[in-house]
Each structure stands twice: as structure tokens, then as C-alpha cells.
Amino acid sequence: MKKYIIYILSILSSYATAQTTNEQKYLLTSASNTLGYSIIDFIDPYLSPLTYSGSGIGYDFQSQRFLSVENTRISKFQKLSLLAGKAFNPPHTASMSFFGTNYGWGVRYHLKPMSKLRVQLGGLWDIDFMFKYLARNVNNPVNVDLGTNLNAFGSATYDILLFRKEMKLKLDMKSPVLGCMFVPYSGASYYEMFGLGNLDNIVHFSSLHNKRGLDANLMLEIPLRRSLWRVGLGYETMKWSANDLVFKRNNLSIKVASVFDFAIFAGRKKRAPSNFISPNE
Amino acid sequence: MRKYSQIILFVAFLLPSCMNEPIVEPNTNMGNFESLWRIIDTKYCYLDYKKINWDSIHTAYKAKVTEKADATAFFDLMGTMLGELKDGHVNLYSDFDRTRYWKWYTDYPSNFNLDLIRSARYLGDNYKIANGLSYQKIDKGRVGYIYLGSFSYGFNDANIVSAMTYFKDCKGLIIDVRDNSGGSLDYSKQLASCFFKEDKVTGYIKHKIGNGHTDFSKALEVKTPANKNIQYQRPVVVLTNRMSYSATNDFVNRMKQAPNALIVGDKTGGGGGLPLSSEIPNGWMLRFSSSPMYDSNMQEIEWGIDPDVLVSLSPFDEGNGIDTIIERAIKLIK
Q1: Which of A41, A127, B64, B73 could cross-link with A250 by S-S, CB 3.0 to 4.6 Å?
Q2: In this complex, how many residue pairs, one in chain A and one in chain B, have their CB atoms less than 8 Å apart?
Q3: What predicted TM-score, i.e. pTM, was given to this entire model?
Q4: Highest mean pLDDT range out of A64-68, A257-261, B120-124?
Q5: Contacts of residue B43 in chain A, CB cutoff 8 Å?
Q6: Into how many domains does chain A fold?
Q7: Domain of residue A147, CATH code
Q8: Which residue from A147, A46, A94 is spatially nearest to B22, judged by alpha carbons?
């Protein structure tokens, strides 16, 4: 007799490990919501030759799920990031507002080289967009970082015992390998590009020769009562170049994440047990 | 193994060298001078056209830069250096002042008197205002008159339709853009489009693609499209003076190609280079001409556009409450 045994809830670990019983297995999706405070530096020579420094607030949503119950070596994951803030030139005579978003989708291969160490290696395709607004500029008040990349990805998780609690130290890194990006000429106004339609040489192939960077996060995963949290640091450094312009972005952030696992019952043949009450009535 | 190490070392050396960040000068008077000089040297579009020896200017002004000079004295010195470019689109903005070059109109007769325009003979007290357009019937209702003081004040097709409808019984139209020092190129194109029956190439534009003084992109056609909602077919006269500058210069350049249009008054002030902005280490902002614009014959319009009919404001007429240029336009329409 089969029974439904899937239960969602925030007390589970972030990894969807396979059950070892003979009962029906269900895949959980492990997800996290992350809030961060960032200290950020920009060099955008289309807007200014000076380095703009400031701060911003960021939000990330990540989810990860194994491809199938039979194969718990490969997982797919996706990530959505938002970042907004304000930066100033060194003498504080001008400010730049920025808003960025990044969406990525990837696949990871899971390895366990040691009893307490787990490693994931894979690739990630992402679309990166950042809107920068320097109000006092004439005819070039805006620039957009727009690009899509294939990234190499790697992460390591190590189990540690701290304060008599089982915690996990997680390090993940990604780096762009190839893609394409939007970079205008420094002398081309948006009027000419989008008003007159002169889009010559604004889209560039990118690879390690003209775009390099690293996006890394070091997080400590801590179980607290019936919830699971991560705290840590993120560091992103990115440098890219085209049309004789060199752009740079450094972002150091403090992050706090809430981790939870969930399964989707809605629309499935096997309904959720009756003791699960959905607000979606 | 050694071979692979050498390759890795070579690649590690090569990759960073591909992306050298630009030199940022220190925030000193000399550093700010060098930074300002370099921005103009690499990004300003008219150094060759105006036959300016920018290297000589570097030598001459570097000798005058001292660290002892206070911000005002240094600012004035930089303003004088930028004045060598003879360009109304070049300004240095600080917290306390803005450098400017205004000789493109101060060295010439103004050919404009706002009090005359506002007198009962022309706009009067009961003229109509539709966003940026001020309009009235003049010459006993036989001629429509629009005064447009800036292309920064927005207007839309509905505003233009309102004015045209009001002028439906008039023999022609005067558009007065004297003392209009520019604004948005989009508004310039929008207004000009009402006087074209079909899309027409009315100019060209280039932009810098490198740091050399002659590193420009290919010329891109600038078209004035025929407005789909408004087609004014009667005679139109555009009034200009030396203070018709920048986007107004662009409007006049477009109207030169309009089938029923005449340009009347004085030569425009010019301002053919689309300006962009940058800044120097002390945070002062620099505006400079970056993209040169041309007429339909690929001739520069930086120094202004000649009218079809050259007319000056007569002091005698002015004393009698008459605007000589408007009166000449009325006669041309009749």
C-alpha cells in the first residue's frame, strides 16, 4: 500500500538527498532567499573616467533540484539576483543610480571526494543586466551593462561541528568563459544608436581575452530551531573591455539567506496528503 | 610539465595586459589639467576641422598651472583654455561656476527684441500657448506666427495640429526660432517633419571611434520623416539669428530642405556637434562636442547656417515697434 510521504518544510537540509527506504521517492527542490548589503565600485568610462563607489541592497533567489530520483549525481538550478543602489564619484560631486538583475540557469555534477566534503562542478548560462544613470551627463546620462555568458561553476561544502551543532561551510564560485555583450563607442550617443538606429559594433563576442571575473560566496549554513540559515560574504569582481573602453565592477556584500525545501503538489496526480492545507483554494 | 607552466604563465601575463584601465590623474591642479586636456584631445570632434594645435595649447597652459592656484583661479585658467575651442557646446561645470564661450552670438547683432514680439502688433496679450509653442495670427489674420523660444520645452503633434487648425485661413506660416539656443533633437525633428511630404535625408552624423583626431565612424544619414498626421503645404518662413544654436541649428538645417520653406534673418550660431559629458578628478563636469553633424551636402554646420534671405533688425523699425525680419517674412509669404 502506497502512502504519500512528501513533506515540505523549512527544517530540512538544503540538499535533496535520496531516501534509503523502499517507499516512493519524491524530489524536493532546495531553495534560498538571500538578502545582502553591498559595497560596490564601478568604472564605466562611457559615463565617466572616475571610479564610482557606493552601496546597495541585493536580493537573490536560488533553487536546485536533481534531474530524477534515479540520478542524484546531476542537478539543475536557477538563480535570480537583483541589486539596486547609489554610488558617488571620489569628490562626491555627482551620483550614479544603478539597478541590476541577473538570471542564470545551469547544471551541476555532484561529487563526494571525502566523507565530510561534497563538491559540485558544472556550467551556468546567465543574462546580466545593469542600468546606470548619471543624471548630470548631457546626451550620455545612461549606460547599460548587458551581456549573456556561459560560466564555469564550482562549489564545495564541508560539514563542521560548531557549538555542538552540525553546520556547513559552503564556497561557490562562477566565472564567465564566453558569451556576448553590449558595449557602445564612447563617442556614440544613445540618440545616434537608438534614435537614428546606428547599432554598428555595439555587440561584441566576449571570452577570457576581453571579459574576466569571479563571483564567489563563502557562507556558513546554520540550523536554528526549525529553520535553516546561511550567513556569509559575497565577492564579485568583473572586468570587460571593448571599443577601447575598460569597464570594471567590484562588489563586496554581506549576505543572510533563509533555506527551505519544497515539493510541488498542485497539478500532480498524486495529491498532497489531506493534512496539508494549501492556501491556494 | 615545464612547458605547460610556461604556457600558463604566458597566458596569465597576456590576459591582464589586454585590458589596461585608463590612467586616472591625481586630484591636483596638474592632474586635473592633464585629465581635462586628454579628454578634449581624445574625444572632442572639431580639433582638426578648426585647425587647433591642441599640443601647443598643452605646452602653453601647462606652464601656467601651479598647485598654489586656488580653485577659482584654476577654474578660470581652464575656462580660458577651453575658450580656445571656440565652441558654445564646451563647458566646465564646478560647484561655483560654469565656463562658457558665448562669442558665437555676443560678437554679432542680436536681431531680436522680445518686447517687439510681445507687442500688440505680433503676439499681443491674447496669444495662445500649446506647451512650448506660443502662437498668434498676425498681419490682420493673414499670416500665422509661432514663437518657439526653446527646443527643451516639449510639444506634441496635437499641439501642432491645434496651431495649424487655428491658422487654416492664413496664407502662410512664420516659425520664429530666434534666441532659441537649442534643446532636444527629437523636438527639432518632430516640428520639421510637419513640412515634409516624404522622408528625406537632411543631414549626416559621425561619432568618434578612437582617440585620434580623425578617428570617426562612417557618416550616418539623418532623415527627416514626413509627419503622418500633419502636412503643412503652404509657405513657411523660419526666422533665425545668431542665437539660434544647437538643436535649433539642426531644425534650420532640416527646414532648408523642406519644399515650401525659406530661412530668413541672420546666420545661425551653429553648434553642430552633439555634446557628451565627462569629468575630471576633482569632480568638475566637462561638456564637449563629440559627434559632428553635417548638412545634406556633407558640409559642416558647426559655424552656423546661412539664411536664404539675409535680413537685419533695423534700429529705426525697432524704435517704431516694427520687427524688420517678421515684416520681411510677411512680404515673402504674400
Answers
A1: A41
A2: 114
A3: 0.86
A4: B120-124
A5: 186-187
A6: 1
A7: 2.40.128.100
A8: A46
